[in-house]
Amino acid sequence: MHFETIPNEKNARLVFGLEWRAYATKGGSAERRRYAQEFDATHYVEIKGKEETIAGFCAPDAADRKGSKLYSAAARIALLDRVKNRPAVLVLVQDEQRVHLVLVIRGAVRADEEVPLLDLANRREAIEDQCEKDSVELVTFGHGTDLVDLDQPFALQELLRAKKSGPIKKVPVKVPVIVPIFVIGGAVIYGISQLITFLNPPPPPLPPPPTFMQDYQSAVLRALAGPAPVASILAPKLIASFAGQETNVAGWQFDRATCGITGSCTVIYKREGGTFKDFDSRATPELRPVVFDPDGLHLATRGPSATTTEKVLLAKASTWPSEQVLIKQLQTDPQRLSIKPDVLDSHGYIVTLRPPQRLLARQPMPGEVRGPIVQIGDWEISGYMWQSVLLTRLPSSMALNTLDVELKEDGAGVHFTAKGKYYVLQ
After folding, report:
1. Using CA atoms, how far apart are residues 230 and 347, in angstroms rounded to an integer?
2. One domain, residues 51 and 186
3. Residue-wise pLDDT tens digits, 79-127
4. Is 96 domain-assigned?
5. DSSP state of 273
6. Residue 219 lies in a domain
7. Would you state the torsion angle of the CA atoms of residues 334, 338, 343, 349, taken in this order, to the nearest 10 degrees?
């Protein structure tokens, strides 16, 4: 065992290195005495649950406990909210060349030991392998300059917040005066059965199902895990890149182009008196590779490339608008003539907003939802190149998926159609 003085608490000390066992809460006093005898323990600490009690046992020297209030460090760790709410947590606290190691699985302390710093890697690997074998997700918290590969830091102040938790008490002594033979025989049989149970423990209970907010947060992360470039930045850049595009090359006229959010756009030309040979002889390296269509009337070339831009970030979700606010933001001066509830149309510039959808079909229970909920909808905007400046005014919660550009045959000019996702708060 190892003792640490608790600051600002007279004669109070934290204890590491207890032996831990679990037993049924009902009738726990007999189990406590049995384990105390097994470990030659004089003191214990208990974490009581409705059905099961987790207990740690120790035998501190008289000099260590004289005049001192002892508290279990492992018990205080197991009672922390961010520990007991996880399937498995490994807490490491470095003390010079040794490390205090506490493993908590589903709220029960499974290890409370001191490991030399040089042996820590092997001990961690063994714990991680066992958790992986048992299909238990393990996270590691730690405090110490030489500790690496930590999921989260651990502050020693967390052990000092609950001043009354984890008290170590003296094991009550109950010695019978006369022990009949049949009681001894029953105790032997009981001890054997308990030993068999200990050597072959039942499988741990299944973890509780995730809450609505846990499922929701996972769904949000999945929704924004891929590329989601801000439409107000990428769409105008792509459209502007076609301003310098040659519309006629060797008897071939620009017809249309299709762009994604990564890589190069694909440009389609249609025959206006030229031949494949004419176009191939005039094609610059920027246009290649050139793919000729079997119909003899069309060919495809490489077009401008989509550049990496800022993406829609979940960290900025607090600034995202609601659905109604988004509609108002899209009604710029040329868009104030609204002909449908979900379509804004003026001068050939059309904005279509599909109704937003929730990320989870599951209905939350009363009290499960905390804070605003993100919803995702599809949008589509079409217009002419001279109207692309309106795209720069789109909110930062609108992401671009595709952009199509075509040359209108009626002489109206270059027309674009942009599509993507928008994110709003409910």
Report:
1. 25
2. yes
3. 999 998 899 999 999 988 999 999 999 989 999 999 999 999 999 999 9
4. yes
5. S
6. no
7. -20
Distance CA 227, CA 239 (A): 19
Residues 277 and 149 in one domain: no
91's CB contacts (< 8 A; 6+ apart) are 77, 83, 101, 102, 103, 104, 140, 141, 142, 154
346: left (phi over 0), alpha (psi -120 to 50) or beta: beta
In a domain, 128, yes or no: yes
Domain that holds residue 251: 231-361+368-425
Measure the CA angle with vertex 361, ends 357 and 363; round to 5°.
115
For residue 294, say if its preceding peptide bond is cis, omega within 30 degrees of 0: no
Give the residue from 18, 6, 78, 81 showing the smallest Cα distance to 48: 78
pLDDT at residue 57, rounded to an integer: 94
Question: Do residues 259 and 303 touch, judged by C-beta distance below 8 A?
Answer: yes
Same domain membership, residue 131 and residue 30: yes
Digit-coded pLDDT (tens) for 156-209: 888 888 788 899 999 887 655 454 565 566 676 777 767 766 777 777 887 888
pLDDT, tens digit (0-9, with 9 covering 90-100), for 120-142:
999 999 999 999 998 999 999 99
Terminal CA-to-CA distance of the chain, rounded, Å? Answer: 53
One domain, residues 288 and 398: yes
**Spatial contact of 49 and 107, defined as CB atoms under 8 Å apart:** yes
Give all strands (DSSP E) within 60-107, no chain letters: 69-72, 88-95, 98-105
The CA-based angle 270-273-279, given to 5 degrees, is 65
Residue 102 domain flag: yes
Residues 246 and 151 in one domain: no
- C-alpha 45/C-alpha 77 separation (Å) is 13
The domain boundary, picked from 182, 199, 216, lies at 199
Percent pLDDT > 90 in the chain is 34
Is the predicted pLDDT of residue 281 greater than 80, yes or no?
yes
